[in-house]
């Protein structure tokens, strides 16, 4: 019997060969160490985080996330819904909130779901994995599992915007959330305390539609990490991780910079600190290798 069980919503980007498949690898390693059982929602679908705002209308967007909630209620009754992707978490949590605020929208949504034989109550909690780690386990418990402290690594905790606004982690400041810094410190690394861009948006989907604007924002995020003396950036968001890591060559060409800043997930830090190897921590999926973290993982 696992210590904790959750109804798990993986999200599209975590799938094999997708942009954050290595995130899922590290999450699985981390959960194995902490005795967390993730019960995947059967037949889950995209949360419509991007395309849902492109002209399809409110009801289809809400109904997509509501379908996941309904499936979770059937398969994993009584379990909190947990997502690792910030966009999936935000879309699903928004849906739960909207359905309980608007009886008319709840009725319309259930009419749509009835075509597939489903009905949603949306009574379960919707949480990001970071919330689970901090609120259900706590820093002291997370620290007890550290086997290889991340000594000598300076990390800029890049929270981004989606895990911070409008919901955020309970008790945290919107302007200067500290949970990622505390998590970094718990793993034995040194957080960059005055990282000025920790909640700046990376541009999200602007990376495709208006890349110059997005890359200007990413440039500021990376420069602030270098200014703080960081060896790498850590984030809880797949979109932030992808944008800040993969566009560095484009930014170097445009701005004549020499960026080569690794961008990893909090779960990779934890997996390495928990004694998992290079592959188990998903480090083989990085575009820019985090050398200092890799050295510890390979010991």
Textual characterization of the structure:
- This protein has 299 residues and is α/β, with parallel strands linked by helices.
- 46% of the residues lie in helices and 10% in strands.
- The chain contains 12 helices and 8 strands.
- The strands form 2 sheets. It has a 4-stranded parallel β-sheet with strand order 2-1-3-4.
- α6 links the parallel β5 and β6.
Task: Describe this structure in a few short sentences.
The chain is α/β, with parallel strands linked by helices and 299 residues long. The protein has twelve helices and eight strands. It folds into two domains: 4-128, Glutathione S-transferase Yfyf (Class Pi), Chain A, domain 2 (Up-down Bundle), CATH 1.20.1050; 148-297, Rossmann fold, CATH 3.40.50.
Helix-strand layout with pairing:
Layout: E1 4-9, H1 21-34, E2 36-40, H2 58-75, E3 81-83, H3 86-101, H4 103-114, E4 126-128, H5 129-144, E5 154-157, H6 179-186, E6 190-191, H7 206-209, H8 211-227, E7 232-235, H9 238-246, H10 248-255, E8 263-265, H11 266-273, H12 291-297
Parallel strand pairs: 1-2, 1-3, 3-4, 5-6, 5-7, 7-8
Helix pairs in contact: 1-11, 2-3, 2-4, 3-4, 5-6
């Amino acid at each position: 019997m696992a210590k904790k069980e959750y109804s798990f919503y993986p999200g599209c980007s975590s799938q094999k060969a997708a942009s954050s498949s290595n995130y899922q690898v590290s999450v699985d390693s981390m959960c194995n160490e902490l005795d967390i059982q993730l019960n995947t929602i059967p037949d889950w679908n995209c949360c419509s985080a991007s395309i849902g705002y492109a002209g399809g209308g409110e009801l289809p967007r809400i109904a997509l996330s509501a379908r996941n909630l309904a499936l979770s209620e059937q398969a994993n009754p009584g379990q909190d819904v947990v997502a690792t992707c910030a966009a999936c978490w935000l879309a699903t949590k928004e849906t739960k909130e909207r359905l309980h605020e608007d009886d008319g929208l709840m009725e319309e949504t259930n009419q749509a779901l009835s075509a597939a034989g489903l009905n949603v109550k949306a009574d379960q909690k919707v949480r990001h994995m970071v919330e689970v780690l901090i609120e259900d386990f706590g820093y002291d418990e997370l620290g007890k599992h550290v086997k290889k402290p991340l000594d000598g690594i300076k990390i800029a905790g890049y929270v981004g915007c989606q895990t911070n606004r409008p919901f955020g982690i309970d008790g945290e400041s919107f302007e200067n959330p500290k949970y990622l810094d505390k998590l970094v410190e718990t793993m034995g690394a040194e957080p960059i305390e005055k990282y000025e861009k920790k909640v700046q948006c990376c541009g999200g989907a602007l990376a495709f539609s208006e890349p110059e604007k997005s890359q200007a924002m990413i440039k500021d995020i990376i420069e602030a990490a270098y200014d703080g003396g960081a060896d790498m950036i850590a984030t809880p968001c797949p979109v932030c991780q992808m944008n800040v890591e993969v566009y560095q060559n484009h930014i170097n060409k445009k701005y004549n910079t020499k960026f080569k800043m690794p961008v990893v997930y909090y779960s990779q830090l934890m997996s390495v600190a928990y004694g998992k190897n290079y592959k188990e921590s998903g480090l083989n999926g990085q575009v820019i290798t985090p050398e200092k973290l890799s050295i510890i993982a390979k010991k």
